[in-house]
Amino acid sequence: FDLASVPELVQYYKQHAPALLVCGTTGEQHCLSLQERKELYRSVRNSAGPDYILYAGVAAFKTEDAVELAQSAHRLGFNGIMLGFPPYRRITQREAEAYVRDVAVSTPLPIFLYNNPLRTGFVLEPETVVRLIQTLPTVLGLKEAGDPENIKKIGADSKMSLKLFCLI
């Protein structure tokens, strides 16, 4: 973890991208301690300046760690979070809802969920996404790296107010 290299990288990306997602995959963020992730958030925000759009990748083995990361992102002036699910755990849909709810009530930041079953071992079901969106006003989007049909299933619900879907 080379914190000293962050400012130069951020300046490069500011010239080539309208925004950055910090710790945005299911890999690197879990290789960093909670403190290192918060230091990275701080360094990127300080390097980017207050007007550059930043999203914090938030996923943790423990819900309280995800809450702490989300709150740190908010305090540092991030614009939103991408909330991934705890990797390597076989959580239920009910546990996933509780995880999202606990993070969502801890911060006013917009939340984009990240469903990546091949990397986490967990599948966020479309019905769960619908319930989360209907009950949590800050859940605004979904990055779907699982079954593309999930997007159709979620979109078929006429009550949906989801603003963004992303297929990878």
Structure description:
By secondary structure, the protein is an alpha/beta fold. The longest helix has 15 residues, at 34-48. The model has no long low-confidence stretch (mean pLDDT 89). It has a six-stranded parallel beta sheet with strand order 1-2-3-4-5-6, with helices on one face. The relative contact order is 0.12. It is built from seven helices and six strands; from the N terminus they run αβαβαβαβααβαβ. It has helices at residues 6-16, 34-48, 63-75, 93-104, 117-120, 126-135, 149-155, and strands spanning 19-22, 53-58, 80-84, 111-115, 139-144, 164-167.
Summarize the entry for a quick read.
The chain has 168 residues and is α/β, with parallel strands linked by helices. The chain has helices at 6-16, 34-48, 63-75, 93-104, 117-120, 126-135, 149-155; strands at 19-22, 53-58, 80-84, 111-115, 139-144, 164-167. Helices cover 43% and strands 18% of the residues.
